[in-house]
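=== Structure Prediction Worksheet ===
Name of assembly: unnamed complex
Input type: mixed (protein and possibly other molecules)
Chain count: two
Listed entries:
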Amino acid sequence: MTVLAGIGFTAPWVLLGLLTLPILWLILRAVPPAPIRRMFPAVTLLLGLKDDESVSDRTPWWLLLLRMLAAAAIIIGLAGPVLNPSRDQAGTGPLMLVLDASWAGATRWSSTLDQIDAQLTEAGRAGRPVSILRLTEPEPPVFQAAEAWRNRLPGLVPNPWQPTEDQVDQVIAALDQVEGGFDTHWFSDRLGYENHPELVSELQSRGQVTVYRSNAAALALLPAVYQDGVIQLTALRAEPGPEESVTVLAHGRDPAGTARILQSAEMTFAAGETQAQIDLALPSELRARITRFELQGQRSAGAVTLTDDSLRRREVALIAGTLNREGLELLSPLHYLTQVLIPTADFVEGGLPEVLPANPDVIVLSDVAQISGPEEVALIEWVEQGGLLLRFAGPRMAASDLGRDEEDTLLPVRLRSGGRTVGGAMSWGESKTLAPFPEDSPFYGLPIPKDVTVSTQVMAQPDPNLADRVIASLSDGTPLVTRKALGLGQVVLFHVTADAEWSSLPLSGLFVEMLDRLAVASAAKSRQVAQLEGTTWEPVQIMDGFGALSDAGTLAGVDGVELVSGQIGPDLRPGLYESGKQKLARNVLSEETTLSLVAWPADVPIRGQEVSTETPLGGILLSFALILLTVDVIASLALSGRLGLAKATAVAMGAVLLVPEAQAQSPDETDFALAATHELVLAHVLTGDSQVDDIAQAGLRGLAQTLNYRTSVEPAAPIGVDLERDELAFFPLLYWPITQDQPRPSDEAYAKLNAYLRSGGMILFDTRDADIAGFGASSPNGRKLQQLAAPLNIPALEPIPNDHVLTRTFYLLQDFPGRYAGTDVWVEAAPLDAEQIEGMPFRNLNDNVTPVVIGGNDWAGAWAVDRNGQALLPVGRGYAGERQRELANRFGVNLVMHVLTGNYKSDQVHVPALLDRLGQ
Amino acid sequence: MNAALTLRQRSEAEASRLPPLLARAEHLAGTVLLGDHGRRRSGMGDDFWQYRPAQIGDSRRMIDHRRSARGDQQFVREREWQIAQSVMLWVDQGASMRFASDKALPSKADRARLLGLATAILLVRGGERVGLTGTTLPPRRGNAQIIRLAEAWSEDSEVDYAPPEHRAMIPHARAVFISDFLGPMDEVELALTKAADRGVRGVLLQVLDPGEETFPFAGRTIFESVGGTVRHETLKAGELRDRYLERLAARKDALTHLCRATGWQLGLHHTGDSAPSALLWLYRALDGGVQ
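=== Predicted Assembly ===
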């Protein structure tokens, strides 16, 4: 590329064309403007008249200058001028572009892509084969033409993880396969990772390595921690620098369900520090709504941290059958539950009527047997909407008739009266221990302490579905915990009390874990590896490199332990995971993550990422030349006296140049579209003859009334359609009365009409002259119809055959009169091979709606009614006339039915075959 | 496509032009009331003139028996002399007439034919014989002649400036020449002097387009005749206007002089003006001459 005064030229030799400008000047100066040819009979009188010599007609200097400028602009424009040409030392040989492509570079990904694009352009010019290698998603390197890679650029996206050790090893192995040397341009995200030095030395052994790195290292946000009533947020930066503050935003949904920013806070990195911290104290309602935190201005997965149940404190309502007795706290049936839940849950106080409107997550009923009618209804509704009703048995429940004869909606099983006592002072048996949890139980995997014993329980009636509902049982097989789903929620019954009277279960750690598994309690501390053992989590939403969430689709479930402790990579994507009713967020960074800067060997040149974008000036210059030439056209026309023409040209030019602005849809069009589509609307073509248009309007109004009374088609008021202006696609049927002096539609209108016919629309042409003329070119209207319809794509036609579907879409008809009982009505011809099958009433005809129906019976005249519903025009005479009007209406009904239902009636041909196949 | 078919098509197309021209001409003719054509003396005719006593030499068949039966004297019924005049028309069919400076204006040929045919209709209604100069269509009377005239004028001539047809002019007949008279002047002169020699008098109607009167042109222009035979190029059309208008006036003067010399009448009509006024002038001019 040749560079002149900061502007490079891709084809500098074209500039030699500028030398021809003086010659062009001389030529153009000598040539007067082109003459106009005019027809003028009186030219005989002009013969011999000489032009005045003094007015020699030369092109004015300013017009010449205009043309010179235009010519110069064209020449320079074709020389391919480029502003800010890149002056990189173009190398030779293959070029390898290595991208870290991790979340850390996502924020500046677009500028990285710009730089890659610039490099590809450069490599393309130099004819170097290029390979692009993403370390986070390694593929065997392939050297291709730069153009091929440019097409694939938009598909290059960063991944939400750092290159893992495996991946770097893969890359090194793949590079070993590549033969020959190549230069490397490495787009670094500035963060270090495993095996980085090995990769650098491998690449250096093949050729020159140049590093392009972003100007600033990425910031990251550690997962939010809920502790001591506040949310602790920690932001990280890779290199200690001057004081810097970032804003962290808490995103969530407001009560109306709209996503919005619920809270924002400022975090400050002190000078020289790599961590910034902030504590957010939020009301539990607000806290429960937060879905993610992110750093403002960062667009990477590392700057986003998703929240899960660990931030949510569940709202639990505890309701006991007996009122608390003052001073006997340890005997309170809720004491142990309260102890378990205090660290992780908020309590909702009050009786059932007060608690239900607060919509708690869990309602615990301890030994409650009787629930009043309206409360029960409300409670069932609450459960069905996703609530968890947790019930504990007790003496009252054992004594009541609850769920005795038939299953109570709010109990998972039927209960036997009285319950049983084992291992007490008055019984022979031993206290029972717990049986291991079955595999399908939510408690599966929990260790069972030996010292948990049960001495009293309520017994379940043996029902067919009992086995399905037991999720924990005693060593003798009797159920301890049963559960059933109810709507979106569930009802769980512990067959023992919530205090230590009937069993030692509430005293054990197992009780806490069981409640946790039931999602009654959930907290950050529950994410211990041990507790997740044996669980499988399915991904709900996953995060891409930019921190945006998308549906997980069909990604496979992940083992709980792996989910918490595994390394984020292609197999374990960050996102939101779900198991049962619980949710767990896996973020890019874990609490232990630290960010480290990458260290480059001293001999690797490092460059910044500023791109001096090349601006090609060719297009600008050529458009400038075009504008100059346009001005020249107008000026020349003005000079040669063709001003009227010049005005028209100027308008046309202006229209051409301003077309993009003129395409916005006007509100009128929107109104029209709304009016035409809010209901089914019949339409007629405006002919310009107000009388005909009024009759057509009244006719379609009458037809709409008839349809309204007799069928389930209920059209709105008909619309007159201007073919030039209005969109046709909204109308199933266009009624087109023919008048002799209606204008021929423009070509655009015909294009619209043809598109309309192709897409299943129907036009009913009516020459309205069947009283005086047979159909054809014999009448003036017929001839006009021929002219009008010539540009339309109309298939071969035939008079309606007796078995056409129009004869039976709603009424059985054989003739189709309007105001005049004229001759034939023409429709699309049946295919040549249509044959009547033996025993079938009809031929198997066209498989679609006929695009046109042509006749001259003035149907609109017969359908026309005034505002009161009275017929406007007389038809025939006396009763016979009314009969004819009735038939005309029936034809209208059949026609609209045909348009709307197509060949539905024709398909009845197949009924015998279908019945036969069904064995009837 | 065979020749007969194309001929048929062409004649259909030609025929389609006739009715509108005829209808418009009839319509135009209807705007002029007919005057009487009586000779104010006895002679051949239909209308009663006078009874005179029978004289020697009157044949018996001439005696009016109804009048003679009232008395002893024998009377002869005389009728007013109503001999029909022959009027020969010439309407310029040249290409130069097929010109209209504006789309809203009729072409000169259109206007000239309309006026010619309307005049013919009026004359035929008045009982005159109407025909074309030359040998193609000698003067006849009756409505069929109107049709023939319309047919004759529905053919365009390719000649750019058609010379007036002056052959086979019936002596002492009347003639109407309608043209723009922009062609060679000597042809017109020849035709008119020849007509004057034969005692034929008549009317020249010059039909001009408004554009030809105003010359609204500017800039470098090549002016071409409609037939394309004559052309004139100028660099500054606007500069020519005054000289052109002088020449046009000179041409009109020449026509006036010629008419004065031969006893003809000269009228000027612009296609921008209304046709009835021109027809009225034309008819009065003819009528005045006939009286």
